[in-house]
Design a protein that fits this description.
five-stranded mixed barrel, 22% strand, 512 residues, alpha+beta
C-alpha cells in the first residue's frame, strides 16, 4: 500500500494548477478502456475528474492492473492538469503514474436502475453516487447559508434539549423513552425552549434534530429530521413573514450561486428557483381554500381545470412514449444495427421508460388531487394533496396565514378581532412541494394559554415552566420552524425526502 503523503491536491482546486503536475487521491467512480489506454473518472469527495492513463507511460504490468480495477477501488494518480471544456469541471489529468491503495470487490451498485429498497439497504454506498454527492453538497451549502443569514443579522444560536418531559404539539407522535426510570420524549420541536432562550438573549435560533413517531412513508415524512427555529421577542406575525421571505430568498439565491456544478449533475431547472427574487404572495387561509376548491382563480387560472387538462396531457404523453419504446425495441430485435446505434437506442429506451414511470405516477396522483380539492371542507388543515394543488398555481413560495385555531398548536395567538383565527403562517414551496415553514405569533395571555393547554388535554404540570415565561416579563413574540430536509427536497427537486439526508429514518428503515 502506498505511503501516505502530506502534499496532494483536491479535485476542487485543479483550476489553480492548470499545466502543472499534481497528485490526486480518491476512488474509481467509472472506468473504460481500449487498446493501450484507460479512462478513469476519479472522485475524491470534492469533485470528479477524468484521468487518461497510457500503457506506454506506466508500463504493461501496472497498466494490466489498472485496466482490471473495479469501481470504488482507491488509488493515487500523479499527472498534468490539462484544460478540457468537454470534461466535467473543465479539466482532465494526463497521468504519469498510478498507485493502488486497495482493489475493491465487485461493486453492488451498477449503472442499471436499482429499486429504492435495494438502494436504501445500501445507503452507505449509495451516498457515493454522483447524484447523491451533489445533493449532499447542496445540503451543506444550505446549512452554511442558514447559519450565515442568522449570524449576520444579530441572532444567537442556542441549543434546545433533545430529551423533553412535555409535548409541543400533542402526544400522538412522540417517541417515548426511559430517562432514569422517568418517562421522557425525544423532542418534536425546540420551539418552547426557544421562547425561553429568546427572553434571555433576544433574537435566537436553534438548529438541531427533531423526531416524530408518525407511521408514515409519504414522500414528505421522516421520523428524524433537522429543524431551524428562530424566535424573536417584540415581533408580530407580519414582521415574522418579512423575516421568512428574506430568509428563504437569501438561502436559495446563495445556494444557486455556489452550487452550479451540483445543480447541473441533478439536471435541475434552476430558472424555477430564480423566481424567489419575486415577492412571495401572502394569502389568507379562506382565500387559499377558495383557490384549492376552484372557486377563486389565480391570474386567470383555475386549479380544478388545470388539473383536468394536465391529466389529459399526461395520458397522451404516456401513449406517445409507449408507442416509441415499442418501435425502438422492434428495431433492436430485427438486428443489423451498428454498436453505436444499439447503445444509443438502449439508453433512449431506458430514459423513456423512466419518464413513463414518472408520468404513470402523475396519472395516479392527479385524480386523487382532484377529489381532495373538490371535497375540501373549509376549516380543515391542508393535507399533502391540498398543498400540491395550490402550489402548482404559483411559481414562487406562497404564505398562507390566519388559520383556524383548531388546526394549529395550542401556543398560537388568537387574532383579537377574529375569534377562532390563529395568527399563524405556513410557507408552501412551488412545484407541488408544499409546506417547508410553519410559524406564527405566540399567545402571551396567561389565562388563554392555560385554557388552551386544558383544551388540548395536555398535563399542566409539565408546562408550568413555560407558563412562567408569561408571568415574568412577557412580551409579544413570534417565530417559525423550517424543515431542512423539506427545503433541500424542493431546491433539488427530489421525488422523496429520504434522499435529502445522509441516513434517512422512517418507519421500517432503521439500517444502515
Amino acid at each position: 500500500m502506498p505511503v501516505l503523503l502530506k502534499d496532494f491536491t483536491y479535485i476542487s482546486d485543479l483550476q489553480k494548477h492548470e499545466g502543472k503536475k499534481v497528485v490526486l487521491q480518491g476512488w474509481v467512480q467509472n472506468r473504460r478502456d481500449s487498446k493501450g489506454i484507460v479512462f478513469i473518472v476519479l472522485r475524491d469527495g470534492t469533485g470528479f475528474i477524468q484521468c487518461v492513463i497510457l500503457e506506454e507511460v506506466i508500463g504493461a504490468e501496472l497498466f494490466d492492473q489498472v485496466k482490471r480495477l473495479g469501481l470504488e477501488s482507491s488509488i493515487r494518480i500523479t499527472g498534468i492538469v490539462n484544460k478540457d471544456e468537454k470534461q466535467m469541471g473543465g479539466y482532465e489529468i494526463q497521468a504519469s503514474s498510478v498507485e493502488i491503495f486497495t482493489e475493491a470487490e465487485e461493486y453492488p451498485i451498477g449503472k442499471k436502475d436499482h429499486g429504492v429498497d435495494f438502494l436504501l439497504s445500501r445507503r452507505h454506498l449509495w451516498l457515493r453516487s454522483k447524484k447523491q454527492w451533489a445533493i449532499m453538497r447542496i445540503r451543506n451549502q444550505i446549512i452554511f447559508s442558514i447559519h450565515t443569514f442568522f449570524q449576520t443579522r444579530g441572532y444567537t444560536q442556542m441549543d434546545a434539549p433533545i430529551f423533553t418531559g412535555n409535548a409541543v404539539e400533542g402526544t400522538s407522535n412522540l417517541f417515548e423513552t426511559d430517562f432514569f426510570e422517568e418517562p421522557a420524549y425525544l423532542s418534536q420541536s425546540g420551539q418552547l425552549y426557544g421562547e425561553a432562550m429568546a427572553m434571555a438573549m433576544g433574537k435566537i435560533y436553534t438548529f438541531g434534530p427533531t423526531f416524530r413517531a408518525e407511521k408514515s412513508k409519504t414522500r414528505r415524512h421522516l421520523s428524524e429530521f433537522w429543524m431551524i427555529e428562530p424566535e424573536m421577542p417584540f415581533y408580530d406575525l407580519e414582521m415574522t413573514m418579512d423575516v421568512i421571505e428574506d430568509f428563504i430568498r437569501t438561502v436559495v439565491t446563495e445556494t444557486l450561486e455556489k452550487c452550479k456544478d451540483e445543480f447541473a449533475i441533478l439536471e435541475r431547472d434552476t430558472t424555477k428557483l430564480e423566481t424567489v427574487s419575486k415577492p412571495f404572495p401572502r394569502i389568507l387561509y379562506d382565500d387559499a381554500v377558495s383557490i384549492i376548491r376552484g372557486e377563486k382563480e389565480v391570474d386567470g387560472k383555475n386549479a380544478i381545470s388545470n388539473l383536468e387538462e394536465e391529466l389529459e396531457v399526461v395520458r397522451a404523453k404516456i401513449n406517445e412514449l409507449t408507442t416509441d419504446i415499442l418501435t425502438r425495441e422492434e428495431s433492436l430485435k430485427k438486428g443489423g444495427l451498428k454498436k453505436g446505434v444499439i447503445n444509443f437506442t438502449e439508453e433512449k429506451i431506458r430514459l423513456q421508460k423512466l419518464e413513463v414511470k414518472e408520468l404513470e405516477e402523475a396519472e395516479r396522483n392527479i385524480p386523487q388531487w382532484l377529489e381532495s380539492a373538490r371535497n375540501f371542507e373549509r376549516g380543515n388543515d391542508f393535507g399533502g394533496s391540498d398543498e400540491t394543488v395550490i402550489t402548482r398555481m404559483f411559481d414562487t413560495p406562497i404564505m398562507v396565514y390566519n388559520w383556524p385555531k383548531e388546526v394549529k398548536a395550542f401556543y398560537m395567538k388568537e387574532e383579537d378581532s377574529m375569534p377562532g383565527i390563529a395568527k399563524g403562517v405556513d410557507v408552501l414551496a412551488p412545484e407541488g412541494y408544499g409546506e417547508i415553514v410553519g410559524g406564527g405569533q405566540r399567545e402571551t395571555d396567561l389565562k388563554k394559554l392555560v385554557d388552551a393547554i386544558n383544551h388540548h388535554g395536555l398535563p399542566m404540570e409539565a408546562f408550568e415552566w413555560y407558563l412562567d415565561l408569561r408571568r415574568y416579563g412577557s412580551v409579544p413574540h413570534s417565530g417559525f420552524g423550517l424543515g431542512l430536509e423539506r427545503i433541500i427536497c424542493w431546491v433539488c427537486k427530489l421525488p422523496h425526502v429520504r434522499e435529502s439526508i445522509p441516513f434517512p429514518r422512517f418507519v421500517g428503515n432503521l439500517f444502515p
